[in-house]
Design brief:
With 498 residues, the protein is α/β, with parallel strands linked by helices. The chain has helices at 37-44, 67-72, 90-94, 109-122, 138-151, 168-183, 195-201, 224-232, 286-293, 316-322, 331-335, 342-347, 362-375, 392-404, 422-437, 449-455, 478-485; strands at 2-8, 11-17, 26-30, 52-57, 60-62, 75-78, 156-160, 187-191, 204-209, 212-218, 250-258, 266-271, 275-280, 301-306, 309-311, 324-327, 355-356, 359-360, 410-414, 441-445, 458-463, 466-472. It contains 17 helices and 22 strands. α5 packs parallel to α6. The termini are far apart. The relative contact order is 0.11.
Length: 498
């Protein structure tokens, strides 16, 4: 891609950007939200037309007017929000839009199943083509998308945040697939905010900042700190937050909380001004636990106390009324309303709070949201634009803004920095810290031990639905967290006992 320029109205998104991708390499494309990564890849994928510039495939100049042109040139785009249909089997998803038909014009199901099996066999994937997509975990959905790209004979695959919603074992599965493709001569453009993954899987890196290519080179010659500095333009502070403050009284306490299958006998408490972390591995039950506390899952037995009084929560509406907020981990399915605009998404939780006789006070919502736009560094054009116009990271900030506007007593954040770049991550960490200073009780659920260590006062570690242990102080380290998350125990010395 040579000298690519693109503007949306007065907003200049790409400023003379030139990049190259070679056969048989995995190259990282990184940058903050709004840096221009998605726009650049949408141009390569034929989704967006550039204002000026040139694209060459194998030395030959090409022009893309739509996604089909790009695909026919051997470029496959696997978007961050996967384009699979849950209610169809794998083989039908594989041939979506290019179905095989027999002489009578009917779908040739056997032929599609056979070709899907051949692709799976070719790259050693153990999947039944007749399996419904809804029954796959996130990593296998990614693999189905990749296999679809292989079936289309793609020579370049763009992977936009492929590991955002994956657990560690799932990530390893996708990385293994990526290495197989690389060894077959496929070029992969890997878009990610997880710099440790860039260091692990990529040979080369390209960094966009404010619509310009500001750095590129071989990964083996740089550090994650170097990449973070290229992305934001300054050194990023990544040490643990040093928080010296007195915690207030207990806000939330649960006793012997038990679910039908996801968790059992869970007891803990959180105090005003405290940031409590909760982590573990795949199947630990933490999301189900806090969804139950928020009224989205049924509790079989146990008690919930808010500010010392036992409460019964049977719906998310009741939880909100009592002062509990919950930012879900799956933004696409549970966080945003895709058919509504930005301000509507940012204010929907507080519509009942700022309405008179059933009429929403729009000006009040706009005033609150404009302050949040500034404090959260949300990049947008107009607040009346559709939420889909924002990058994934900025959508996540809008979801956070939605819950902050309700000013809850307890705010549960399930993977709050999912799909958020390194600079915006620091913004969110600062905001979490500021909210705690204002005596809000914060609970952070995260799969990333470093995130837990970075911002939490202490952390609960879950293992297969039970509370395996707690870490704080000297035990707040990756080694002890992983020991507990895999079913081990800390010694008396590690726990600080005599």
């Amino acid at each position: 891609m040579k000298n690519i320029k693109k503007s949306f109205g007065s907003n200049v998104v790409l400023k003379n950007v030139s990049i190259t991708i070679n056969d048989g390499e995995i190259c990282a494309l990184i940058g903050e939200n709004g840096a221009g990564k998605s726009t650049l890849m949408n141009i390569l994928g034929g989704v967006v037309k550039m204002d000026s510039g040139e694209i060459y495939i194998n030395g030959k100049k090409v022009e893309f007017n739509n996604p089909s042109d790009s695909l026919n040139s051997g470029i496959a785009f696997i978007h961050q929000e996967l384009n699979l249909i849950n209610d169809l089997p794998i083989y039908e998803n594989m041939f979506l839009g290019r179905e095989i038909r027999n002489k009578r014009g009917r779908l040739d199901l056997e032929k599609m199943i056979e070709e899907t099996k051949n692709v799976f066999k070719e790259i050693n994937v153990d999947l039944n083509p007749k399996t419904m997509v809804r029954d796959l975990d996130a990593s296998y959905k990614q693999i189905v998308e990749i296999c679809r790209a292989i079936m289309m004979n793609a020579s370049v695959i763009i992977m936009d945040e492929p590991t955002t919603s994956l657990t560690e074992p799932e990530i390893k599965r996708v990385f293994k697939m990526m290495r197989t493709l690389r060894d077959r001569g496929v070029g992969i453009i890997f878009i990610s905010h997880k710099l440790n993954e860039v260091m692990e899987i990529c040979e080369r890196y390209m960094v966009l900042r404010d619509g310009k290519l500001v750095a590129e080179g071989m990964v083996k010659f740089i550090t994650p700190d170097d990449l973070a500095r290229y992305m934001v333009g300054y050194d990023v502070f990544t040490d643990r937050f040093l928080r010296r403050h007195e915690l207030g009284e207990e806000v939330l306490r649960v006793e012997k909380l038990t679910h039908a299958h996801a968790f059992r006998d869970i007891s803990f408490s959180v105090r005003k001004g405290e940031i409590l972390g909760v982590t573990g591995l795949l199947g630990d039950g933490r999301s189900e636990l806090f969804q139950a506390i928020f009224g989205a899952e049924d509790i079989q037995s146990g008690k919930i106390f808010l500010e010392g009084k036992e409460i019964k929560i049977h719906s998310t509406e009741q939880a909100l009324q009592k002062g509990i907020g919950y930012l879900p981990k799956n933004r696409k399915e549970n966080g945003i309303l895709k058919d509504m605009n930005i301000i509507e998404n940012a204010s929907i939780v507080t519509w009942p709070m700022f309405s008179k006789r059933g009429v929403i006070d729009s000006s009040k919502h706009k005033d609150i949201f404009q302050k949040q736009v500034k404090s959260l560094r949300i990049k947008l054009n107009k607040i009346t634009d559709n939420i889909n116009n924002l990058s994934g990271g900025n959508q996540q900030k809008v979801v956070l803004a939605k819950w902050l506007s309700a000013n809850p007593k307890v705010l549960i954040l399930d993977n709050p920095t999912q799909g958020v770049d390194v600079g915006a991550k620091e913004d969110i960490y600062d905001i979490i810290s500021e909210l705690a200073k204002k005596n809000m009780a914060i609970i952070v659920l995260s799969s990333e031990a470093q995130e837990i260590i970075r911002i939490c006062d202490r952390a609960l570690i879950m293992f297969h639905g039970v509370l395996q242990g707690e870490v704080s102080g000297t035990t707040m380290n990756e080694h002890d967290i992983m020991r507990l998350a895999t079913g081990g125990e800390l010694s008396a010395v590690q726990r600080g006992e005599q």
